[in-house]
Amino acid sequence: MSNANTEIRETTTPITDDGDHDRFAHVVLEGYTPEGGEFVPIGNSVVEGIINATPVTALCGKVWVPGRDPKKYPICPTCKEIATSLGWTPS
Fold it and tell me: 31 by DSSP, 3-state: which?
């Protein structure tokens, strides 16, 4: 009788998707205008981010290069909470 070692390997194909299940629309503060002052930019605008592929920063701290239609996703709960606390009405 031979002593043969048999190895059985299970192969699986990973399931991938584009991650839409955890995507949110974020609120980006591009700058502000102090009372009686001129606009003060504090970061890249979303339009600039889309055109130049430069990252933007959301109120919640997420940094990403915008490229998807935000209307397809629910608003980020953290961004919404911060915006609401500042007296804004995110929609």
Answer: strand
Q: Which residues contact 53 (CB under 8 A, 6 or more apart)?
A: 65, 67
Would you call 79 exposed, middle or buried from its count of C-beta atoms within 10 A (0-12, 13-18, 19+)? buried
Q: Are 83 and 27 in contact (CB under 8 A)?
A: yes
Q: What is the amino acid identity at position 81?
A: E
pLDDT in tens, 16-30: 444 455 689 999 988
Cα dihedral 59→65→71→75 (10° resolution): -30
Rounded CA-CA distance 89/91 in Å is: 6
31-52: pLDDT as tens digits = 888 888 998 888 889 999 999 9
Domain ranges (residues) in the chain: 20-85
